[in-house]
Amino acid sequence: MRSRCTDTLSSSLRARSPFVCRACLRQNSQKGQSLPLITYTSRRTLQTEVAPKVVPFRKQLKDEAKKKRLESVPKSSKKAKGSDPKLEKWELTVGIEIHAELNTAKKLFSSAATSSNDAPNTHVALFDVAFPGSQPHFQRGTLLPALRAAIALNCDIQRKSTFDRKHYFYQDQPAGYQITQYYEPFAKDGHLTLHSHDGIDPSDHPSIRIGIKQIQMEQDTAKTLQQPPSTHLLDFNRVSHPLIEIITLPHIHHPATAAACVRKIQSILGSVNAVTAGMEMGGLRADVNVSVRERHRADDARAGHSYYGVRGLGQRTEIKNLSSFKAVEDAVIAERDRQIEVLEAGGVIEGETRGWTLGSTQTRKLRGKEGEVDYRYMPDPDLGAVVVGEDLLHHLRNTLPMLPDETAETLVDDPGYGLTMKDAKTLVTLDDGDRLDYYLDVVQMLRQHMPEDLQSSSKIGKVAANWVLHELGGLLATAGQPWTANTVSSTALASILAHLLQRQITGRTAKQLLSTTFYGDTRSVQETIAEENLLLRPMAREEYEALARELIDANQDMVKAIKEKGQRGKVMWFVGQMVRNGEEGRVEAERAEEVVREMLDVKA
Amino acid sequence: MSFLREAQICIANQTARKSLNAFIGLAGGPTILRKAEAADTQRDGGPLHGRLIAVKDNICTSDLPTTSASGILKTFTSPYDATVVKKIHHAGGIVAGKTNLDEFGMGSHSKCSYFGPVTQSNAEGAEALSAGGSSGGSAVAVATGQCWAALGTDTGGSVRLPAAYTGIVGFKPSYGLVSRWGVLAYANSLDTVGILVQSTQHAKVVFEAINGYDEQDPTSLLPSTRARISESLSQRRRNSSLRIGVPLEYNIAELSPQVRRAWTSALEFLRNQGHMIVPVSLPSTKRALSAYYVLAPAEASSNLAKYDGVRYGTRAEGPDGAEGVLFSKTRGEGFGDEVKRRILLGAYTLSAEAIDNYFIQAQKVRRLVQQDFDRVFSLANPLLDGGRTGRQDTDQAVDVLVCPTAPTLPPTLESLEKQSPVEAYVSDVFTVPASLAGLPAVSVPFKASQRGEGEGQEGNIGIQVIAQYGDDNLALDVARMIEETRRT
């Protein structure tokens, strides 16, 4: 039932709160435009018959984690899917549409500020809420992150693009239409490449190229806040926040690859500073188009449906509004299995829109073809074409930050780093790139601290990566702490590693130093080494030999295993024992190994 | 006469002519008189100093409601003033009130209003005549002395047609010269703020006050383009003898004999003044009306989607999602029949199954109509690159076109009741082409010097002058010549 608020006191107080943000107004008046303050004459609430269920994001994350735990038990069944006879008969095809909130200061068509956590309805201009007589003012600055994204995704930037209206009625859409780019989008025909380390399905190894049909700019909608049982409060701060919609071609054939594609697009958008937040913060949303076809018929290009040059496709369904990578993967699996089941039972797939609830195992029908909205696309008569000059593109291309793949390749190929692809990729993807920044800081400081002859050694890069990822990472995992760059400052780690690399402390000492710093020792590394007397006093060759001899004599069975059975790995057991038995902080593992090998006559 | 005296006469007329229903909201006697009195004491105001200007009720004012004659906005007051309203204030004008119209500008007789139809006064005992539409309220207010001038909006003839029917001057400037910020959109690629006045001289005064670039209107003509246009106009060698084009396609069978005679008289008069009459062909004219009635409703269906009662406006009782379709109750109750008809028409022509056959085709016709005009005018269209596409030899080209504003005299309101909606659309046949091309056009009253046998019907006739884009002043100058005939 409708319940218009008639509580005079509270509603009159509400009426005085500014509807248009004062800061936004100042921006306007500075430009010589004067927007008066809009105030509400009464509080309006919106009622719909059925309140759609919205799951809070934290709950969603919990649900996903719970589901994952439950699933992880019968892992064997998951492994077996590769040999599923149904999947040998049926081929899955997936195309993805990704909506990403652009990182801009202003809305798409007004000078109101963008915001994410401000008080509701504090950043709203007249046009944003479709006041009669108001008109759009395209904010040119919003083009920059959009263009960076399109360049990073290898698109052809269109010199001229236009805006169209997409019509449908919903309370979060004030004008009754969304302004988007339907007929002439600003970017077309791009692609991205997914590699093994991106988490694609093994059958796509070593890499797969996914085409991008187009990228368009468009407006976001308002936020609806549920007030059970039937009231919806509307927050127009988000309305007209600039979005880009990225539409991939149906080049994806595996659920894991679909998830990897979304993850990679998020990572690329983040690296070029095009978006505000990732999927986990609601900055990215995905719709997936799913179809299956019989493999032996897939080559018959004349049969079936086609999409932008991709032919012979099965009837697709669209699953809307997926808000995590896991949801993308799970929804694709569920919809693939549903379609196969329907087809094998002799049924027909209807072109329809479906939904996915977290934690479920099935997609559900939202509306059928008969319920599809005809969006009645129309060029917006108020908005002229957007024309992008070659000089701007040139500038953006030259100043584009390095993409994740390029960074990883540099870390592998540059002898100053010399990392494995696995470590490089891990550094690039961890903690939104913060771990990489930390690593680069450590390497740079190490190079400054080291004597000249060691500065260009690839040892620096490798050792630093090992300590940033594995030693420090291990401490974080044990303590159950999230990453911050302050737990152990990059200066502290660089200082520890400088001592280690110059053989001023042993590896064991270095680990201890890292651990004490991690758990809150505020002394500088230098101080700790001095106060605890940790500086390496190198042992003489004779001392090493004595230490080794003692162990060899006492453990003849181990010697036998090495010499007669060829268990050469046991050499390291002796090294470990020497480090443990020797004087604290004096035994260097490398030299110990050297001595043991010589004495046992085992080559490295 | 003092401004106070002038205002008092207008207010007296407003009271005496209340039954004509020209106004939806009046500024109120005391307010107006106070301002007029103040205007008398400080003489050096702007060009509209102390003048009473009525404003069509689809133009936003913050001190009076803006209803657009719709039930859905019957109690709506805009939080801001339209740019043209600010310009009137700035020029010293006094807003007299908000005038009645066809709901959202959709109509040709000002009878589709939530606040009741506008009528124009007629001889004692005779039938009530159509005031024309959709700016009928503005036209009647000026024609009956309820204000000095009025603003209207012209999408397909909504300023020129009522001006013709009520015997005053109606001027639609080139699209993009006058700001639309604060003007409720009907079909925004066509909507133009226009002027209704007693004389072409007044039209020039008001035009100068409201013409100008506005960065809040994204379709406002840029200062650089304006400069380019006035540069090219100043270079034109202006002969005292003009070449007046007569579009042959406008001589249609439906043209009433009185109107045809007025047209020929006007042309004769101009020829006697030393100008040359040149027959020209505008072959796309026949398709222009159909194209207009595809494009305008399409844009209307989009522009009116915002009226859902959620953020402003009148809202139906009960849940918004009643009957399964969101906002259908609010929109069903809030809009009148003609608005619903055009929204449906527009929604259909934009639908996936129809857009290629209707909306896209109509856009092509619109382009052809523009090309027709560019071919006959001696002045190149300043908005086109090079501007010379397809134009005839200069010796065949014309400076302006002169034709009737409407095919008939104003019909009686009674006769309109028998008309189908499509028949009503025919009254826009001569005004729509200039709208599609965005050209300046003036309707000026013309009294035929003699009356034919057996033509008992009476009423005003408007002659329309159409000029090339940006050549607004020439259109007004030629209209002024035709205006002279009233004094002879």
From TrEMBL, chain A:
GO biological process terms on file: glutaminyl-tRNAGln biosynthesis via transamidation; mitochondrial translation
Asn/Gln amidotransferase domain location: 437-600
Keywords from the UniProt entry: ATP-binding, Ligase, Mitochondrion, Nucleotide-binding, Protein biosynthesis
Signal peptide from the UniProt entry: none
Keyword Glycosyltransferase recorded: no
This enzyme's EC code(s): 6.3.5.-
GO cellular component: glutamyl-tRNA(Gln) amidotransferase complex; mitochondrion
Location(s), subcellular: Mitochondrion
Catalysed reaction equations from the record: L-glutamyl-tRNA(Gln) + L-glutamine + ATP + H2O = L-glutaminyl-tRNA(Gln) + L-glutamate + ADP + phosphate + H(+)
Taxonomic superkingdom: Eukaryota
Ranges that cross the membrane: none
Primary residence: mitochondrion
Pfam family, one: GatB_N
EC main group: ligase
MF terms (GO), sorted A to Z: ATP binding; glutaminyl-tRNA synthase (glutamine-hydrolyzing) activity
Role of this protein: Allows the formation of correctly charged Gln-tRNA(Gln) through the transamidation of misacylated Glu-tRNA(Gln) in the mitochondria. The reaction takes place in the presence of glutamine and ATP through an activated gamma-phospho-Glu-tRNA(Gln).
Similarity comment: Belongs to the GatB/GatE family. GatB subfamily.
Subunit annotation: Subunit of the heterotrimeric GatCAB amidotransferase (AdT) complex, composed of A, B and C subunits.
Protein name per the record: Glutamyl-tRNA(Gln) amidotransferase subunit B, mitochondrial
Lineage: Eukaryota, Fungi, Dikarya, Ascomycota, Pezizomycotina
Automatic annotation (TrEMBL), chain B:
Reaction(s) catalysed by this chain's protein: L-glutamyl-tRNA(Gln) + L-glutamine + ATP + H2O = L-glutaminyl-tRNA(Gln) + L-glutamate + ADP + phosphate + H(+)
Recorded superkingdom: Eukaryota
Source species of the chain: Coniosporium apollinis (strain CBS 100218) (Rock-inhabiting black yeast)
Biological role stated in the UniProt entry: Allows the formation of correctly charged Gln-tRNA(Gln) through the transamidation of misacylated Glu-tRNA(Gln) in the mitochondria. The reaction takes place in the presence of glutamine and ATP through an activated gamma-phospho-Glu-tRNA(Gln).
Classification via Gene3D superfamilies: Amidase signature (AS) domain (3.90.1300.10)
Subcellular location: Mitochondrion
A GO molecular-function descriptor: ATP binding
Active-site annotation: K56, S134, S158
PROSITE patterns xrefs: AMIDASES (PS00571)
Gene Ontology biological process terms, A to Z: glutaminyl-tRNAGln biosynthesis via transamidation; mitochondrial translation
UniProt similarity note: Belongs to the amidase family. GatA subfamily.
Annotated PANTHER family: GLUTAMYL-TRNA(GLN) AMIDOTRANSFERASE SUBUNIT A, MITOCHONDRIAL, TRANSAMIDASE
Protein name, as recorded: Glutamyl-tRNA(Gln) amidotransferase subunit A, mitochondrial
Entry keywords, A to Z: ATP-binding, Ligase, Mitochondrion, Nucleotide-binding, Protein biosynthesis
Gene Ontology cellular-component terms listed: glutamyl-tRNA(Gln) amidotransferase complex; mitochondrion
EC numbers for this chain: 6.3.5.7
Assembly information from the UniProt record: Subunit of the heterotrimeric GatCAB amidotransferase (AdT) complex, composed of A, B and C subunits.
Domain Amidase: 14-475
NCBIfam families: gatA
